[in-house]
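Task: complex structure prediction.
Instruction: return structure tokens for all chains below.
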Amino acid sequence: MSTVVIEPQSQSLAPQPTMPWKPTRKTQFSGIFSVVVVAIVSLAIVLLTGLAGIDGFGLTFLAVFLGVTVARTARQNPKVRKDSMVGVAICAAAVLAFFPWMSIFLSVILKGARGLQPNFLIENMQLTTPDDELNMGGAAHAIIGSMMMVVIAAVITLPLGILSGVYLTEIRGRLTFLVRFVVQSMSGVPSIVAGLFIYTTFVNFTNSFSGMAGSLALAVLMLPTVARTAEEVMKLVPDDLRSASYALGARQWRTSLMVVLPTVRSGLTTAAILGIARVIGETAPLLLTSLSNNSYVFNPMGGPIGSLPTYIFGLLQIGTENSINRAWTGSLVLMILVLVLFLTARYFGGKDKR
Amino acid sequence: METIKKGETKVMQGSQTSVATMSASQTTATAVRGLETKNVHAWFGKHHVLSDVSLQFPERTVTGLIGPSGCGKSTFIRLLNRMHEFIPSAAMAGQVLQDGQDIYSPDVDAAAIRLKVGMVFQKPNPFPAMNIRENVLSGIKLAHLKVADHDSIVENCLTRAGLWKEVKDRLTATGGSLSGGQQQRLCIARSLAVEPSVLLMDEPCSALDPGSTLRIEETIKELAEKIAVVIVTHNMQQAARVSDFCAFFLTDGGPGYLVEADATKKLFTNPTDTRTADYVQGKFG
Amino acid sequence: MIKVMSVVPSVESTPDPRELFVIYNRADRIFRRIVTSGALTSLILLGLIGTFLFVRSAQIFNDRGLKFITGSNWTAGSGDGVIPDDFSIGPMLTGTILVSVIALIIAMPLAIGGALYIEFYAASRLRKLLSTMLDLAAAIPSLIFGLWGVVLFTSFGERWSILLNSRFGWVPFIKVQAEVFGRSPFVAGCVLASLITPIITSVSREVFSRTPRDLIDTCYALGSTRWGAIKTVVLPFGRSGVIGGAMLGLGRALGETVAVYLLLNIVFRYNFRILESEGGNIASLIALKFGEATEYELKALVAAGFVLFLLTLVVNMFAATIVEKSTRRK
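Output:
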């Protein structure tokens, strides 16, 4: 009887896990080697034929690589050849798809870093012209203006977004489909149309451009993002939790307010932050509602107000060397803001899942 | 020295436990026709899920893999046609031999192995964008096989899967229009079209009603007249009805391992190990 | 008699299901009302945007009728009536569509390739990194794309334009009249393409990742290659989702303001030659003319905004329907 039992082997003799399907070091090396060879060959072709620049190089590289792949798989069955050729095409498409934003990340960091001096964060442009040296003037007024507007917009939007999230997940009334559909379609309203809407209403009624008008325009753009994210996070609340609350005799409003909402608190933070990240770089609506300003404005109703996007946009239209450099630095600050918001949202978003 | 000795005892144990697996025609000591595993282990990351399984699956037999859930049966069956490696962080050790050739050796084309060792999954899954005929022929298209007569393949495979009479008049209907049991038989027909020599089935009936299950079991028996079938099942009655040989897997919280492998009749009536006896009598699992 | 009835139940004896009533108390009713009205804000807001834009611009549609859409001039009058006001958005409307379609044609293959790469080709660690970066890329403000386009991309764009013109000059859409390249619909379209690629990639990746794993496994079990599995299972499964993503991208491109404003020579003339240095779109028209517009011109701008609103609304509703459908089918 005991002979039948297959004893688990002792630790010292235990076989080691292997992954025989993984490429061996040798094939990996030959792969890297062939890529390098192809790169050198294409570089030579580029230098000899006058196809200039990184784009010419990329194209030649792809062509040579495809040629090598075809030659290499020529003897194999057509299935394998097709697979490797499509593989090369997909990788090439992916590189092209990722190239622009990689390039943007890099160029914003490299070109923006030059102007990122302390004065950029603490001074405004009241006494400086855009053409002045980069160690004069700054974007403090624009940063403050942007912050103020997005925070007001978030304060307006968050309750509405939460209510629509609660409606879609807790009440699930007759209009559920319609509300979801409208939120979805509204996320595509062009930002300039939102600006135009606030212009024809709020700006016309109050008879002045203002930070408040800018906030309202941003709120219109923010609402769909916040509402949808709020719905997503509330959907994650397990139904057991609601059932448990109902089984204790709780009414719906108590269940929603005291059980569901507290559970998704950090998820709702995510919703608000993602909403802010979505609109903080919006330029078009601000051109029609808050305009721009070269000095500090702290009153949301106190007339035109500076903001980072309109600051960058204005500098771009001047178009001199120093103003473009300032624009890059402004973009760097804007990008850092988006990144920080994004990472914060990730952090809070990860919290609920645990 | 130590390892070799260990290996030898392993063979001894194997031959003791699965004497019956060696049918009369399979006595050649070297290259065994059919599928064979030698000291197979499996890991997911650092998690050791399957330990030291040596089994043989000769031609024209049905082998049932039984055991409580989580004992590595499904992992084991996916190792047999190199589906294991699609799970990130999966790793293995040991050998899987197909007609004496190690399918995990680096010069072997995994896709070619999967053509020889077909697989049917738990849930019936005909390709949704294709009709019945296209579903049967999908394997031929995917593997770029050159076949002259498509019609006869469709008829032949559907007949072997026991579905021909029911669908011969509506071959252009979508696979989704069939009942669950019919869909699963369509999936079997799809696997047969590329003429595998082994068919792996991972709980093929767990999503079906009793009537359909019975039809599938008949189909399996008919298939075993030509090829080897390996079937994972939770249902011990099913294993008893359909299989010629059975292998019982178990886990004690660690990696799953093989407790006993034998002719089905022996395993169910007079098992060597008490744990097998307890399991087949329904005392646990 | 009674016995027979009970053994063979007649059709009438099958009981109708009872209606179940839920009674909400006062607090619940108030709660539901508040939540419902909050949820309806977005609905009302959308209605308000349409209504206000239309009311404010009704005079224009009344004055000019269909000529507002078809005409090609945007001339502010002299005020004394010597030169009459002449506002129409024809070239801007066609320009909007032209630039967006160019962007979509370029972006689609790249986005699908990128999504397939992330989901099926990249190693798992790279996949996680790339999908995070992708979400971040979708959040880059269009202004920064515009800046990048003006400063860095334009030289590439010009070079490609010259190449295209010299090789494919015989194609009507590609031929140019003046040999001035840059600030053309093609260049703007390229930058818009890189702007919408992350969005389409992200949506496509999402639907591709929902492909049932066992269908893909089945392909492999039938001896298929990776591409075979993608072609047989993944692409048919993800098709409607990808179309929905493309529509979302198109909606974004149609309404883009600053990137087009910075990258396109805005000229009021119908232009379908993609390399010619002239074009425009409605959104950039509004941004361009808003600053020094007369009151009547402002109304015309609002009218243009209304047309843009309707255009994007149709595209986005279409997209929303498709995306909703494709994500509901799990």
